């Protein structure tokens, strides 16, 4: 099973598009884009297996590489990703966000303590400790991603959040340049090629 998971993760990494504009500023944007639809019926999911999900978290400084994730953890990540994508799509489309997606992000935000807790043991007595045991690493990662998404959706950059304009790509980006409507050079090249073909054939795109 592990060998098959590793093969799936490697294939997804090879297929994956490069980070979209804004992903270096907002980890939640890169998180939302860990799954994407590609032309010719292709797609990828960088959170498809526990191993690939752990590597994504480690690469984004949200956990360490020695943390072992299980399928239930990877599924929680995929579920939160779906809700964040729904909220991004609602913001881009000026639609009312679904209550269940708002609740999912708020649940992630409040799942971990935000202040050091008061603890006691015989050796050190009373002390303040930051609750971050290994078995709660995913909770902390999801809380960080949820907070990042909330900051994006409520901050000034929300106005430049956009969906890729190169069908069938369904990734999001920050429109850092006014004329940019796609998430990667690959998607932009596809749009330009389609427009050139439409001009040559006398059809509209």
Automatic annotation (TrEMBL):
A Pfam family that this protein carries is: ABATE
Where does the record place the Zinc finger CGNR domain?
Answer: 161-200
List, alphabetically, the SUPFAM superfamilies matched: Jann2411-like (SSF160904)
Stored InterPro entries: ABATE (IPR010852), ABATE_dom_sf (IPR023286), Znf_CGNR (IPR021005)
Stored PANTHER family: BLL6575 PROTEIN
Q: What is this protein called?
A: Conserved protein containing a Zn-ribbon-like motif, possibly RNA-binding
Organism of derivation: Actinacidiphila glaucinigra
